[in-house]
């Protein structure tokens, strides 16, 4: 397995759009695969945020994670976010998400990001708590109960 930027595998945008639509599309009003594909085109970066990291094995894309700006409108002061962490069903439970999150944290740190935030539907923090993320608060955001968390990357 290796990590690559979506910018280096642009042909994967429709696949990611489908994954994200299937997983989270119901939370976004007027969401469609086409609108998600258009949005993902904004992530075709390697040296600046927003960007997407892919976990790949040869030609197979096994998962993805995003570095993005200001994901939650209720927290405009929280600038950098980890989001869109998705692992293909058959690859779940193999520590791939942990490796992908750690790689994304490393990339964020090299870009000068000192603190990352995220939101997760797992109100205990789950994977993220195990990786050292700290709970800020549980909130209902856009009709979904989520835990908002942060991690200081420089510590």
What does this structure look like?
- The chain has 155 residues and is α+β, with helices and mostly antiparallel strands.
- Helix content is 26%, strand content 34%.
- The protein has a single domain, classed as 3-Layer(aba) Sandwich (Aminopeptidase).
- The chain has helices spanning 13-24, 33-40, 96-110, 126-130; strands at 2-5, 51-57, 60-69, 80-87, 115-120, 134-141, 144-152.
- Strand 2 (51-57) and strand 3 form a beta hairpin.
- Helix 1 (13-24) crosses helix 2 (33-40).
| Element string (H = helix, E = strand) | EHHEEEHEHEE
- The total strand number stands at 7
Strand count, sense and barrel status of the largest sheet are: 4 strands, antiparallel
Structural class of the secondary elements? alpha+beta
Count up the domains: 1
What are its keywords?
alpha+beta, 155 residues, 7 strands, single chain, Aminopeptidase, three-stranded antiparallel beta sheet
């Amino acid at each position: 397995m290796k990590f690559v930027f979506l910018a280096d595998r642009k042909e994967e945008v429709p696949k990611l759009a489908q994954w994200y639509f299937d997983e989270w599309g119901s939370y976004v009003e007027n969401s469609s695969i086409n609108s998600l594909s258009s949005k993902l085109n904004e992530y075709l970066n390697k040296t600046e945020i927003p960007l997407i990291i892919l976990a790949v094995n040869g030609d197979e894309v096994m998962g993805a994670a995003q570095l993005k700006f200001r994901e939650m409108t209720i927290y405009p002061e929280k600038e950098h976010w980890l989001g869109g962490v998705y692992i293909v069903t058959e690859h779940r439970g193999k520590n791939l998400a942990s490796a992908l999150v750690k790689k994304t944290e490393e990339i964020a740190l090299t870009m000068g990001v000192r603190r990352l935030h995220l939101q997760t539907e797992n109100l205990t923090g789950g994977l993220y708590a195990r990786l050292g993320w700290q709970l800020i608060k549980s909130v209902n955001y856009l009709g979904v109960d989520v835990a908002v968390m942060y991690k200081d990357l420089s510590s």
